[in-house]
Structure formats: structure tokens, C-alpha cells
Write a structure and sequence with these properties.
The protein is 41% helix and 20% strand. By secondary structure, it is an alpha/beta fold. It folds into four domains: 82 residues, Barwin-like endoglucanases, CATH 2.40.40; 47 residues, Transferase, Pyrimidine Nucleoside Phosphorylase, Chain C (Transferase, Pyrimidine Nucleoside Phosphorylase, Chain A, domain 3, Up-down Bundle), CATH 1.20.970; 243 residues, Pyrimidine Nucleoside Phosphorylase, Chain A, domain 2 (3-Layer(aba) Sandwich), CATH 3.40.1030.10; 81 residues, Pyrimidine nucleoside phosphorylase-like, C-terminal domain (Aldehyde Oxidoreductase, domain 3). Strands 1-5-2-4-3-6 form a six-stranded mixed beta barrel.
């Protein structure tokens, strides 16, 4: 059928077109069926929606970026034909039944995800099937390879290539801003790509975007990495493992992150940038993605084994995650804290300890003996700060950037302790919720600054943490939410007081007979 192209300014996760009810009947398609639309040499599959108002008879509405990918001019006549559902739907059903998928079946699913030919319902079924039934290591390796094959890969003139990744779950984990400059200053190549926040208060890309451009294409990333030794880029600006970005849109509202998909998500992007050596940070503790040491060890084993199958030397570090790393949570606050440490500040020690440890592992893998000691030396000497500024300049930022130059939210509110005692527990998820309520990560200046950490003594009325926001309304929302939460538990050294009971009273309480029921009269 020949129909006129009409652009509809709306985005959907799937490629969607809108047909008039009469045209849909003539084509023999209903809502959620598929059509193939052809324009010159381009041909794309779309999920159908029908209407009698949004488009006229003889028109086909194409939503958002899919219109630009297809490339027709307004009102240009294009060909629309019905098409069957992809075979990958049957393979998804197979995994729903708990069966093992073949290499070809996994490749078909990933190709259809990358090309957006699966509906949101089908994609949700896929993600749920992985959450419930999982994949073995062979399937996971095939999934990773398929995700790499559907996107760009980057080849560097230098080798080997080093990389670092944290699986997340620990607020304030801004150590990438310190690890990358240390490793690059040691002469190793580390083209780091990072994600934006999905459910956290700040992804590494959100933090770096405060002071430098993170939207690098693959050619720019390769050029900068080979020139200065490292990058701090957003992985989403490149076409690396594009199926992963489609899957994340389904995982987020469901609140799930299937084990096999998490492994493939991380490793596909590392494989795509040609990583030879990789360090994985696995925070463990209450409120993280990995709550127990046993699960952390299983995660580490799977990453190492998967890396072996992909030709990547992987080492994993299980790290403390029961409370935030450092004191800052939120893009600008975390940028300030990381740059301050690069400038020579010796606090917070938790950030320095973790960053030096992770960087040291990479240096050891690169043949530099005494890696952690060397990492601390590079940090203390100012070499890491110098390299950091080179990377910032190469990515379009101010090479003379200072921590105090980073603007933070101008609206603040202190949450104070209601009693005197010691900070007994910190609830990571609740702190993240407060930071997001204040506007993070979209509002760069929003977030939380901790004044107390676990084990610190605090007096009644003393600030536990400060909420930052870029506007008053969001600050008020965060304050209101803080009244419902108790993200920090303060307890005294005496946990319970028992009243004095005399010996006589104990005897009376123990042996006094129970009164009998009164006799009936």
C-alpha cells in the first residue's frame, strides 16, 4: 500500500507507526501487528497503532527518531506492507519455559531487539524470562557476543587496552574520576565509557558532564584516548551494544536486572572497546545490588569465567557497600569531592582507599609492580590531577578546573539528629531517594552531603546530612520525604534499660498462685 509519510513528534521505545482504521483493515493488520515500511534503500519494521483521528486515510504516521532513520520527506509517498511477527518471539517463549537457547536463537533475539522489531510486551517477556530462568555461562557468552555484533566496535592503534567498571548499588561511588587519571598517568590506555543514572543519584557520565563534554562519538573517543591515554565518556553517545539500551528501558520500570543480562551488558561494552584487561568492582552490603558475600563471590566467578570466554582478562574486587563511598551524593557534589581529592585533599579516606585499590589492580595487571603503592604515589604527586585536566581539556572542558569552581544547589536544608549517640546504620536506598527527590541527577547541583558516617558520634541537634537542590520546590519535596524516612539510625551505647526488681519481688512474681475462677452462685 502506498501512503503519505507524516511525522509525529513523540518517542516510544519501539519503532511505532500509526495507521488510519480503514487503511489498517485494508492491509489486514490490527494494533500490535507489524508492517514493513520502505523508503528508497531503507526498510524498517514497525509496531502498528490504529486511529481515526491522528492521521487521515492515506497517511502513515511515524513516531520520533524512527521517522528520521527512515528518511522520507513530509507527505512523500512510501510503501507499507504487512509482515509476520519475528521468529525470535518463539525463542523467547522457549526461554520462558526454562529451556536452553542455541547460539542462533540468542543472536536472532538480540538482532530483533537492536532493530526494535519486538514490541514492549515481547521485550518484557524476554527480560522476565531471564529474571526467572536465567542463562548458563555459554548462553551468557553468546548473548554478550551478539550484543557486540549489533553495534560499533573500536580498534585502537595502541595496546593493550585497560578498563574498569563498577556494577553499582553503592551511592557516591565517584572513584572512576580518580582511577582513570591515575591509570592513564602511569602510561596505560584506559578509554573509559560510563553510563548515566538509571535509579541512582548520579552515574559517572552525569558527574563528568558537570565540567566536560561526555557525548563523544567513537572516532573522537579513539582520538582522545590515544592522545592523552584515557577518556571519561558516556557510552550512550556511541552505538556500542545498542540492544542493551533498549533492554534497560524495560528493566527500569520493572525494577529488575537479570543476572545474565547484567553480565552481558557490562561485558559487551568492554568487548566493543577492545578491552584486554578489566577490573570489576562489586559493592556488597545491605541496599546494594549484591547483599551478601556469597552472592558477591558468585558474581565475581561469573565475570572472570565470562571474560575468559570472551578473551578478556578479568579480575574482580568485592568492596564494602554498607554505606556511601565518601560524603557526596549527586553530580556536582560528587564532582567537587573527586576533584578535591585529585588536588591533594586527604579526605574522604574511603574514596581514596577504594580508588587507589582499584587503580592499583589495573597497574598490577599492566606489569607495574606494587600497583596500589604506585597509584597512591601518582595521586599524591599531582600527576593524576595533571592527567585529569588533560582529559577534561580534550573533552571540551576547562583545563584549569578547580573543585571550588563547581556550582552546587543554592537551596539547602540540614537534617539533624534527634538524639545523642552513634550512627548505627545508613540506608543507601533512602539516601538515593532523597537525592533524587531533590532533583538529582537531572539537576546537577542537587544531592546529599553527609556530615556523619557509620560509627561517628553525634549530639542531639547536630546535622547528619544536608540536602541540596537547584530549586525551592524540589528541596521542599525532599524535606517532606525525609520526614517519612530514617536514612540514618542513631543509637546510644546503652541499647536497653531494665528496671530494678528486688529479690522479694522476683519471688512473688514467680511463685504467686494464679487466682482461680470465682465459683458460680
Amino acid at each position: 500500500m502506498q501512503l503519505k509519510a507524516k511525522y509525529i513528534d513523540m518517542e516510544t521505545a519501539e519503532h511505532t507507526c500509526v495507521l488510519h482504521d480503514e487503511d489498517a483493515r485494508e492491509l489486514g493488520v490490527r494494533e500490535q501487528d507489524r508492517v514493513r515500511i520502505k523508503h528508497e534503500r531503507n526498510s524498517m519494521v514497525f509496531i502498528v497503532q490504529t486511529t481515526d483521528t491522528v492521521v487521515n486515510k492515506g497517511e502513515v504516521g511515524i513516531l520520533g527518531r524512527a521517522y528520521k532513520l527512515l528518511g522520507p520527506d513530509p507527505d512523500e509517498v512510501i510503501e507499507v506492507v504487512g509482515t509476520s511477527r519475528p521468529a525470535s518471539v518463539d525463542f523467547i517463549k522457549k526461554k520462558m519455559a526454562g529451556k536452553e537457547l542455541t547460539t542462533a536463537e540468542i543472536r536472532a533475539i538480540v538482532n530483533d531487539i537492536a532493530e526494535r522489531t519486538l514490541s514492549n510486551v515481547e521485550l518484557t517477556a524476554y527480560v522476565t524470562s531471564l529474571e526467572i530462568n536465567g542463562m548458563n555461562i555459554r548462553e551468557t557468552a553468546d548473548l554478550t557476543e551478539a550484543m557486540v555484533e549489533t553495534g560499533e566496535t573500536i580498534q585502537f592503534d595502541r595496546s593493550p587496552v585497560f578498563d574498569f567498571h563498577s556494577i553499582g548499588g553503592s551511592p557516591g561511588n565517584k572513584i572512576t574520576l580518580i582511577v582513570v587519571p591515575i591509570v592513564a598517568a602511569a602510561g596505560l590506555l584506559i578509554p573509559k565509557t560510563s553510563s548515566r543514572a538509571i535509579s541512582s543519584a548520579a552515574g559517572t557520565a552525569d558527574i563528568v558532564e558537570v565540567f566536560a563534554n561526555v557525548d563523544l562519538d567513537s572516532n573522537k573517543l579513539r582520538s582522545i584516548a590515544e592522545s592523552v591515554g584515557g577518556t571519561l565518556a558516556w557510552g550512550g553517545s556511541m552505538n556500542l551494544a545498542p540492544a542493551d539500551d533498549v533492554i534497560i528501558r524495560v528493566e527500569h520500570p520493572l525494577g529488575i536486572d537479570p543476572h545474565a543480562q547484567l553480565l552481558a551488558s557490562v561485558m559487551s561494552k568492554k568487548k566493543a572497546v577492545g578491552a584486554d584487561f578489566l577490573v570489576i568492582d562489586i559493592p556488597v552490603g545491605e541496599g546494594t545490588k549484591v547483599p551478601t558475600m556469597e552472592k558477591a563471590q558468585a558474581f565475581a566467578k561469573d565475570f572472570v569465567e565470562l571474560g575468559d570466554k570472551l578473551g578478556i582478562h578479568v579480575e574482580a574486587a568485592i568492596t564494602y557497600g554498607d554505606q556511601p563511598v565518601g560524603r557526596a551524593i549527586g553530580p556536582a557534589l560528587e564532582a567537587r569531592e573527586a576533584i578535591s581529592i585529585l588536588e591533594g585533599n586527604q579526605h574522604p579516606s574511603s574514596v581514596i582507599e577504594k580508588a587507589a585499590g582499584m587503580a592499583g589492580m589495573l597497574l598490577d595487571m599492566g606489569g607495574i609492580k606494587g600497583g596500589e603503592g604506585k597509584a597512591r604515589e601518582i595521586l599524591a604527586s599531582g600527576e593524576a590531577l595533571k592527567k585529569f585536566r588533560e582529559i577534561v581539556a580534550a573533552q571540551g572542558g576547562d583545563p584549569n578546573i578547580k573543585s571550588e569552581d563547581i556550582p552546587v544547589g543554592k537551596y539547602t536544608y540540614d537534617i539533624v539528629s534527634r538524639e545523642t549517640g552513634y550512627v548505627n546504620a545508613i540506608k543507601n536506598k533512602q539516601l538515593v531517594q532523597l537525592a533524587r527527590a531533590a532533583g538529582a541527577p537531572k539537576d546537577k547541583g542537587a544531592g546529599i552531603l553527609l556530615h556523619m558516617k557509620r560509627g561517628n558520634r553525634v549530639c542531639e541537634g547536630q546535622p547528619l546530612f544536608t540536602i541540596y537542590a537547584d530549586n525551592k520546590a524540589k528541596l521542599d519535596q525532599a524535606i517532606e520525604l525525609s520526614r517519612k524516612f530514617e536514612p540514618m539510625t542513631v543509637e546510644g551505647m546503652i541499647l536497653q534499660k531494665l528496671p530494678y526488681i528486688s529479690k522479694t519481688e522476683v519471688i512473688e512474681r514467680t511463685f504467686c498462685p494464679v487466682p482461680s475462677e470465682p465459683e458460680a452462685k
